[in-house]
Amino acid sequence: MLLHEITLENFGAYKGKQSLSLSPKPGRPIILIGGLNGCGKTTLLDAIQLALYGARARCSGRGNRSYEAFLRDSVNRQATPKQAGVKLWFSTTIEGEQRHYRIERYWKISGKTVPESLEVFVNGEYDRAISETWANYVEDLLPLEVASLFFFDGEKIESLADPERAAPVIESAVQSLLGVSTVEQLRTDLLALQRRQKVTKQDEAVLGQIAAIEAQLEETELAKADALQHVAAVRADLLHAKKELKDIETKFAKQGGDLFQRRAELQAHRDQAERRLAAVRETLASAVAAGPLPLLLLQSRFAALKAQVEKEQEATRAEQMLGALQERDTRLLALLGEAQDTTALKQVAEFLEKDRSTWSSKAETPKPIQMSSTGIKQLQLLDSVLAAETHRGRELLAESADLRRQLDTLDRQLAGVPAEDAIADLIAQQEKARQQVTGLERELRAVEEAHAAHTRDHEQLVTARDRAYSKRAIDIAKIEHRSRVVSYSERARNTLEKFGELLLKRHINRLEVAVLDSFTRLMRKDGLVKDLRIDTSKFTLILISEDGEELNPTRLSAGERQLLAVSLLWGLARVAGNRLPSVIDTPLGRLDSRHRQNLVTRYFPQASHQVLLLSTDEEITDDLLKSLIPSIAQTYTLVHDDKTFTTTVERGYGWGKTRYVA
Known about the structure:
Strand content: 5-15%
Distance between the termini: 22 Å
Largest sheet: 6 strands, antiparallel
Structural class: alpha/beta
Number of strands: 15
Number of helices: 18
Shape: elongated
C-alpha cells in the first residue's frame, strides 16, 4: 500500500485547502513533516485515519465525544460555510493488479446535526457500491487493528513495553497481520457450513430461538470484553498500589517501625523471661539449701566409703568361698591320689594351695564398717539421687544462662525502638496505603467475579445454541449428502486447527527473533537483553537478561521502553512482510541523543517503503536531519499563525542552520 497525497479542507487548524504530496522516491522512503507543538501534526495523522475509517477511526483528539461532536469540533472556526473535509489518494495491489483509490469525506454543520458524505473513486471512477460498503471494504485492504500498528504516536507507544498492554497488540497482529486469523476464519466458515446443513428447513420458532441466543451471545461477548478491560485496569492500579505500600514498608522498617510495632510483644517476652529467670534461681537456691546437692561436697568421702564397702563385700564372698574350695580340693586330691601320679598330684596340690591362698588374702581384709545389705542399697540409692540432682542442677544453670542472654537481646531491641512521634507520619502513610491495597483487592475480586459471571453466561449460551442446533439437526441428518458435508467439514476443521497451531508457533518464533534483532539494533547498551520470548497462550512479552533471569520491563528506562515498543512494531512489520506505510507522530520523545541517533539511522530508513515522520524542532535537529537526508523524499513544515490560529503547509524542513527542501 502506498499513500500518494492528502488534502485537508478547513479541518482543525488547517484553513482552506492544504495539500501534501506523500509519494516516496526510490531509496528515499521518508516524508519528513515538521511543526512546533500545536501546529497540527497529530491532526494530520488523525486526518489520514478519519479518511480511511470514519466513525471507527482512533483519532487522538476525539476522546469520549460522539463521532458527530468530533466532526463538529473539527471544522475550522473561520470556515465559511461551516463545512470541512479530507481527501486521501492511495494505491494498493489486489490480485496482482494495482488499483488507485481516492477517498473524499465531507461534512457540514447544519443546525444540531452534522451530516457526512463519503465518495470512493477507483482508478478515477466513482464506485457507488464500494462507497456504500466502504467500512467493510477497507477492512480487506487495511484492517483497523493492523493500521494501529503502522499509524502511531511515538509518545504513547511506550505502554506497549508493558507485558499486559502489549499482549492484545501482539495477539491482534499475529491473528490479522500474520494471517493466523484467516485459518480461524476458515474454521468458522466451515462451522457455519455445518450449521447451515443442520438448520435447513427449520421452523420459525426454532430459528427465532437460535437468533435470540445469537443476539444474547453478542451482548455477552461485549460485556465480557468490557469486564476483562476493567480487570486489567484494576490489576494495574493494584500493582502500583502494592509497589507504593512496599516502598513505605521498606522505609518504615529502616526507621525501626517493625520494632515499634513489636514493642509490646518484646516487653512481654522480656517480662516472661525475667519471671522465668527468677523462678530458675529460686529453684536452684532451694535445691542447694534443702536438697541433697550439698552432699556433693563430700563426694570424695562417698567414693572412699563405696570403695571400702565393695572391698568388705568381696571379703565376705571370699570367706564363703574358702569352705567350699577346701571341700572341693580334698575330693580332687583324693581322686588324683588313687591314680598314683605323684607329679600331677604335686602340681595340682600347689595350684589349689595357691588359689586358696588368694581367696584367704581377700577374706582377711579388715571390715571396720560392716554395712548391712539395707545400708548398701541406701548408699546406692543416694548415689543415683545425687547423679539425678546434679543433672537437674546443670540444666537449671544452662537455662539460667540462656535466659540472661535472652534478656540482654531483648533489652538491646527495646532500646532501639523509636519514639512514636518520630514515625507517626509513616504509620499514617502505611495505613492509608494498606487501605488502598485492600480496597483495590476487593474491587479486583468483584470485577473478576463479574468477568467470570459473563464467561459462565457465555458458555451456557453456547451450550444452549449447540443444543438448539443439535435438536433440529436430528430431523435432517438422514440426508447422506449433508451428513458427508458435516463429516468432511469437521475433518477439515480439525486439520485447520492443527495447522493453525503450527502456523502460530512458526510466526511466534520468527517474531521473537525479529523483535530481539530490532531491539538490539536500536539499543545503545550491549547485552542488556539476551533473549526474548512470547507466551503463545497469553501473548505476553518476556525479556531475558544476560544472567538468564526474566527482566521486568519496569527496570528499563523510559527511553528504553519506548525503543522496546518500537522494536515490537518493527518486528511485526518485518515478519508480516506487508508493504504498508508507517506514520509516526512525535517519533523521538523521551529518548536521549544516542537512542535518537540509532532510531534515525537504523529504524526510520528501514521501517517501511514509505515512512511519514511528524516531528518537532527538538526531535529531528540539524545533526539528525543530516543523517536522514539520504533517505528523505519529501519535506514540509507546518507553520502556525498565532493570531489567526491557522496552519499552512510550506515546503522544506529545518529551524536551525540546516534547512532542507525536497
